[in-house]
Automatic annotation (TrEMBL):
Family to which this protein belongs: Belongs to the HsdR family.
Enzyme class per UniProt: hydrolase
Residue ranges of every copy of the Helicase ATP-binding domain listed in the record: 302-506
SUPFAM superfamilies (UniProt xref): P-loop containing nucleoside triphosphate hydrolases
Protein's name according to its UniProt entry: Type I restriction enzyme endonuclease subunit
SMART domains: DEXDc
Parts of the chain that traverse the membrane: none
GO MF term set: ATP binding; DNA binding; type I site-specific deoxyribonuclease activity
Organism in which the protein naturally occurs: Rhodopseudomonas palustris
Length: 1065
């Protein structure tokens, strides 16, 4: 019976290589021999020099007086050197400079027929991909920046001999995060950052999953790709197409020979298209890779970003549309892009402006960025500026007119009402068809009268609208003024792609509890856990606000409920909250209550009392407390701009404020990933509602959901589909497909019993259910521990949600279940602590997200969460013996000694790899025999103690006596013996005396030549290497007659220097 193969090489790496070679244009796979020639045998060299030289010569000709001349060989060499010129900057700065060099080319002075001037040289032909050379390399050996160790990325793609993409392949059963982590690690300064200097695309792939990113992208921001221009049939044809004879030889010649027959059999049978195939076909086709690198990567304040698939296809669709058929006035056709909030709409606009500027069919394009609010205008301008696109912001209507008439600026940003002021200055028209108006949040005023005014100034311009929310029914007819929908990316799609987070919604009815009969009950609940004195103090403060009017009672009640909720479940974590209120007056009242309470830090962000331009209600009556508050803020911060900036920056970057109180400002266009909870006490409908709830859906590490706590009944009970909500009745039902985007909190709580059952069932194999030792022994297997931790974390997260939900937490019928869940959380958390101590795992309590830690602190008794003790140094005899004595059984003592000894071995492995590998094997053998019941607990403990003692007090009885006095020489001898122990000595005799003398001499070479920080000094290490090479040739070979090939000597010297760096630096 034939069986499928399950390894990385067969399923992932060879599949990728095959697909890369069947594309058109295809990638030419280089053999290792060809690669060595291209790199001149230098593993630190990441350029394919002969290919690069030939391509630069081919792509570049100098035209003068109707004749074409080649660049001189010296100039081509200079251009190559510019790609690897060392610079004292970090990888991201270097990558940005190199990216500019690749996209813009360089200028080199050359004399032709007596005329000397700068001549432009390009590295890549971006316009005609087929003119470039495309090569793939597998298992590329790259020397680390700080020593001679090698890293070996699975596949590297070269364009004209320059590395542009790196692919890491993984077996089907390996977590893709491992591949992502490898690529992220490779970019560190002490790894192989020089490989990534020119790289534009990085990919981690296994058959069932694949993600991509660019240089510098953190693991949490790697993305999936969903192709819109090709189907699986096209991919399948390439995946199952045969390779020609040359391709087959290249694919299987370097270590993959045994995989050839099974791989070809699978292909001939018609293999199934995988997620890996889809992504590699989508992103690594030469023309697509060049397009991504040129038009769809950018630097945003030094952070490199690459387009997500919705951004890529939206820009492509727009470019196709504006270059297509024109209207009866000769104007280019525009349209509307609907991409949900958080999906990178502003960066899509930047990429579009870049693509318009690069397209040769669009000459002298000008871009006008239009918003309807000053703060959004500034934010959009800042985004373009951060990405290196120079924008001039129109300060007034007259300034806008000047920019249009005289300045002819390439990119202008303006608030829409400045068009009215510009028109009032004169009936000017710009008839150009090369003007592109990118209108942000185009569902609002821009569709109506203001759109008409823009058309008066730019009658033949191309209008492209961008919106983060779906179009209302009433807006769809007027949307045709822009040309209809170009592209849509809904909130549900964004949640599915993990571009934004789902939202958990809870409706609260605090106000209904606050009446004369029920206020004491409500107060008892919100002050539960406080001392009598604290309760009296808070009741006094509450009375100050609740004796005035029913409306103020409601404000007081909501303020105290928010304070209780935030303090119990979020305070002390890094997560923050926004609170949307009805008016400036309400905002100031809430602020004063929070300030009086002192339990959470709150600030208000609002516009000036008489400012009508920001979205705060212009009809609102300005009260004396509001004016007083505003004057205090202006005095404190020195002006409105500083007031806004300091508070919002504090919210984003510092511990305080924890809560931002807002009216309309910051409910749109404000992105702060720490913003996790949105409390609502104001009526919100339509676009305003969708914009507001999206404030808390931004992706961040350890953040799984955003939370909506609704005191205003905005979404009701969420008992029907979102499309039927009265607050959203203005939208078409099909445009509100949010099945994954907004989740009723009750649906989350409903998962709690199953999560609890899953945790209990994990231990169904434990026979002695009342014996904690049995549980700890059961969790000796690392895989079972990891699964236990994941199940416990899921249970804790759901319990935290339930306890934070008013209806569940305060329902008496849930009290028995709540007690059971809390007790089990306490017990299993103690078990988690015990096994982490027993098996001495690294302390990573940070992996427990902040909210779970908050749950344990708030709801579980103090003794439930024990601190995982610090790893004990086995060389600290007293502390180590004390830690062992604290264990209660021989097996637990042995487990602790074994885990800590293994940790020490891991930490010190490079100091003496041979010795520590031997002890590690002894420990592994003892553990295996104990688990197989071939060793009793006491025998297991004795074996482990013996192994630990060898690490603590090594005797080295197995090494020659002459080297035992020098620990460095012992380690070097072990390394030499491991490499040469099987070789006969002089005249066929024992080689060990020769190796002992060599160990002492090699250690002496290091001691003689080392200087401060020599382990980071390449010149010193090369001097050591040369002296050691001489010793091997002069003494080992010539005097002792022991023949070693040069590559054997290089490998031995590398191992000796590795030991020396670990021990003697």
């Amino acid at each position: 019976m034939s069986r499928f193969r399950d390894g990385e090489v067969h399923n992932s790496q060879l599949s990728a290589l095959h697909l890369l070679q069947t594309m058109n244009p295809s990638w030419t796979l280089l053999t290792k021999a060809e690669l060595d020639r291209e790199r001149r045998g230098r593993p630190g060299n990441v350029l394919l020099e002969d290919i690069l030289f030939a391509q630069l010569a081919k792509l570049n000709r100098i035209e003068q007086d109707g004749r074409f001349h080649p660049f001189s060989e010296a100039n081509v060499r200079t251009a190559i050197e510019q790609l690897r010129k060392p610079e004292p900057t970090g990888l991201m700065t270097l990558n940005e400079k190199t990216t500019d060099l690749l996209q813009l080319g360089t200028s080199l002075d050359q004399t032709i027929e007596g005329v000397t001037r700068g001549r432009s040289l390009r590295y890549i032909d971006w316009d005609t991909p087929a003119n470039n050379a495309f090569h793939a390399v597998t298992e590329l050996d790259v020397e680390k920046a700080v020593n001679h160790e090698m890293r070996r990325p699975d596949i590297v793609l070269f364009v004209n001999g320059i590395p542009l993409a790196v692919i890491e392949c993984k077996a089907p059963d390996v977590d893709l995060a491992e591949g992502i982590g490898q690529i992220v690690t490779y970019q560190r300064a002490d790894e192989i950052p020089h490989l990534f200097r020119s790289v534009q695309l990085v990919v981690a792939a296994k058959p069932s999953q694949a993600k991509y990113a660019t240089v510098g992208t953190a693991a949490k921001f790697w993305s999936v790709w969903k192709e819109k221009e090709f189907d699986d049939a096209a991919v399948a044809r390439l995946a199952n197409a045969p390779l020609d004879a040359a391709q087959t030889r290249r694919t299987f010649c370097d270590g993959f020979a045994e995989e050839q027959a099974p791989f070809e059999a699978r292909r001939d049978a018609g293999r199934t298209v995988t997620e890996q195939d889809r992504l590699i076909h989508a992103l690594c086709r030469p023309d697509r890779l060049l397009d991504l690198a040129r038009r769809f990567t950018l630097f945003d304040l030094g952070i490199k970003k690459i387009a997500r698939y919705q951004q890529f296809f939206a820009v492509r669709k727009i470019i196709d549309r504006v270059k297509g058929e024109r209207d009866q006035h000769g104007a280019r056709r525009g349209g509307v892009v609907w991409h949900t909030q958080g999906s990178g709409k502003s960066l899509t606009m930047v990429m579009l402006a870049k693509a318009l500027g690069l397209d040769r069919a669009i000459a002298n394009r000008r871009v006008v960025l239009v918003t309807d609010r000053i703060d959004l205008d500034t934010q959009l301008r800042d985004t373009f500026d951060a990405c290196g696109a120079d924008v001039i912001q129109a300060k007034t209507g007259s300034h806008l007119l000047d920019l249009i008439v005289r300045d002819k600026a390439a990119i202008i940003s303006t608030v829409i009402n400045k068009f009215e002021a510009a028109i009032a200055k004169g009936d000017f028209k710009d008839e150009s068809t090369e003007v592109f108006l990118l209108v942000d949040e185009s569902h609002r005023g821009q569709y109506g009268e203001m759109h008409t005014r823009m058309k008066r100034v730019f009658p033949r311009a191309c209008y492209i609208g961008f919106t983060g929310t779906p179009l209302m029914k009433a807006e769809k007819s007027t949307a045709t003024r822009f040309g209809g929908i170009i592209d849509a990316y809904t909130i549900d799609q964004a949640v599915e792609d993990k571009a934004v987070l789902p939202l958990i919604y809870e409706g609260r009815q605090v106000a209904q509890e606050v009446n004369r009969a029920g206020i004491d009950t409500w107060f008892d609940r919100v002050t539960r856990g406080l001392s009598d004195q604290q309760r009296v103090d808070l009741k006094r403060k509450l009375a100050r606000y609740s004796e005035i009017a029913q409306g103020d009672q409601t404000i007081s009640a909501i303020a105290y409920d928010i304070a209780e909720h935030f303090t119990q479940f979020w305070k002390g974590t890094r997560w923050k909250a926004q609170f949307a209120v009805r008016s400036r007056a309400a905002a100031v009242k809430y602020y004063e209550i929070f300030k009086e309470m002192g339990t959470i830090s709150a600030e208000v962000i609002m516009s000036a009392p008489n400012d009508r331009s920001t979205g705060d209600d212009p009809a609102e009556e300005v009260t004396e407390p509001v004016v007083r508050f505003w004057k205090a803020m202006m005095s404190k911060y020195g002006g409105e701009e500083q007031y806004n900036r300091q508070i919002t920056e504090g919210f984003k970057k510092r511990e305080e404020p924890e809560l931002l109180i807002v009216i309309s400002k910051l409910l749109t266009g404000f992105d702060a990933p720490v913003d996790t909870v949105l409390y609502i006490d104001k009526p919100l409908t339509g676009h305003n509602l969708l914009q507001a709830i999206a404030r808390v859906n931004r992706v961040e590490e350890d953040k799984e959901y955003g939370y909506i706590v609704d005191y205003a009944g905005v979404l009701g009970e969420l008992d029907t589909a979102m499309r039927s909500y009265s607050a959203l009745a203005e939208f078409e039902p099909d445009d509100l497909d949010v099945g994954h985007a907004i989740i009723d909190v009750q649906a989350q709580i409903a998962k709690l019993p199953q999560a609890h059952a899953n945790l209990i069932n994990h231990f169904k194999g434990v026979a002695k259910v009342r014996d904690e030792e049995a549980y700890e022994v059961f969790l000796a297997d690392e895989a079972l521990r990891k699964e236990f931790y994941a199940l416990l974390a899921e249970f804790a997260r759901l319990l935290a949600t339930a306890l934070a939900t008013s209806n569940w937490a305060n329902d008496p019928k849930n009290e028995p279940q709540s007690r059971l869940y809390k007790d089990d959380l306490r017990r299993y958390q103690k078990l988690r602590t015990a096994v982490r101590n027993r098996y001495r795992e690294a302390i990573d309590f940070e992996q427990y997200e902040a909210r779970i830690r908050k749950l344990l602190d708030t709801h579980i008794s103090a003794d439930a969460v024990e601190v995982v003790t610090q790893p004990v140094n086995i060389f600290d005899t007293a502390a180590f013996d004390q830690a062992v004595a604290e264990q209660t059984t021989p097996a637990s003592k042995a487990d602790l000694i074994a885990s800590q000894t293994k940790r020490t071995i891991t930490e010190r492995m490079e100091e003496d790899p041979v010795f520590f590998k031997k002890i590690s094997d002894l420990i592994a053998e003892a553990i295996a025999e104990h688990r197989a019941k071939r060793l009793s607990d006491n025998e297991f403990l004795a074996r482990i103690r013996e192994a630990a003692e060898q690490v603590r007090r090594p005797k080295h009885d197995d090494v020659p006596a002459e080297v035992r006095a020098d620990e460095h020489a012992v380690a070097v001898f072990n390394s030499l013996d491991n490499a040469m122990g099987g070789i006969a000595g002089p005249q066929g005799g024992n080689i060990r005396p020769v190796l002992a003398a060599a160990a002492l001499q090699l250690v002496s070479i290091v001691k003689t030549l080392k200087v401060v920080n020599w382990n980071e000094n390449v010149d010193v290490q090369n001097a050591m290497r040369n002296r050691m090479d001489d010793y091997f040739f002069d003494v080992i070979r010539d005097q002792n007659g022991i023949e070693l090939a040069p590559d054997q000597i290089d490998a031995i010297v590398d191992s000796v220097l590795k030991v020396a760096r670990a021990r003697m630096a």
